[in-house]
Amino acid sequence: MKKENKFWKDLQKAFNTGVSFMLPAVVVGGIFLAVSLATGEATDAGMEVTNPFMKNLLDMGSAGFAMMIPILSGYIANSLAGKPALAPAMILGFIANNPIGENQVKTGFLGAMILGVATGYFVRWIKTWKVPATIRTIMPILIVPVITTFVLGLIYIYVISIPIGAAMNWLVEVLGNMQGGSAILLGLIIGAMTAIDMGGPINKTATAFTLALMAEGIYAPNGAHRVAVAIPPLAMAISTFIDRKKYTSEDRDLGISAFFMGLIGITEGAIPFAVKDMKRVLPAIIIGSAVGGALSMANGVEALVPHGGLIILPVVNGKVWFVLSMLIGTVVSVAILHFTKPNLESKDGLNEK
């Protein structure tokens, strides 16, 4: 029992460490993206930024978002096994967050978390090896990173990514067969898929499905998806505003950034909150996004561009229900968090106002 408790405490500490180091990248990326996209124009390809200065700001924001997942993975592993685990976990986190292999599978932050944990424990095991003193000096900078990246990278590409890729193809097929069926059920599924991994493969599957339908002139599923992408960050932001005793001062500061990310439809703004408290945050945002998606579909909302959040309101058919669906879904998530997330202990000044 003690070993089991230590395992979960180690994991919790590792996830918190990963989030702490990831936060600056999330904030920088979110603020720069929000500012630059706010100056863009809605086109068939999404929000297009034409101002050269704002384009540079957009690139810097995109870089922040590209870095945040490798940083998360790296420092999860670093917490578990020290410096030798940092570089391989960052490399594997980058791999998880980008398409790779024959099927070009991407697993996003969930895959990066899994690889971060796997790297930590794999490196712990390598550190138990008995090696000659001459080799021991090069273990942290050569042997450990090379072996860890090679072994876990191949396992990820050739073992883990294959079933994930097959599952994604199956989901696209299922969604495609549902088109034209129950609008509410389809909206529920699209909304839930949008929130479950926040920019990961399931979210991208929903995106691919709605883009394919847009090419056929069907815009309502895209409307549901674009409502749902904004709900997780908006819900987390508002929850930090009204339930301050449930969040650290760091979380509350992050809530401001998440709010602006929600306005421009960047679901990843909720990732740090989900990593720290997955069992409460994920159900809340999945249910809220599903409700928002269902309301959007039921009321015929159509988003005419492949982007989300209130920033695209001028190019939405059914503007009132677009806003209402987003608002109601957000309120549902906030309410669930209010009743399921406990107040932080007052020690260490976490409850300061």
TrEMBL record:
UniProt GO MF annotations: carbohydrate:proton symporter activity; protein-N(PI)-phosphohistidine-sugar phosphotransferase activity; protein-phosphocysteine-sugar phosphotransferase activity
Transmembrane segments: 21-40, 60-78, 107-126, 138-160, 180-202, 254-274, 281-300, 320-339
Source species, domain of life: Bacteria
Topology of the protein relative to the lipid bilayer: Multi-pass membrane protein
One GO process term, biological-process aspect: phosphoenolpyruvate-dependent sugar phosphotransferase system
NCBIfam families, per database record: PTS_IIC_fructo
Name assigned to this protein: PTS fructose transporter subunit IIA
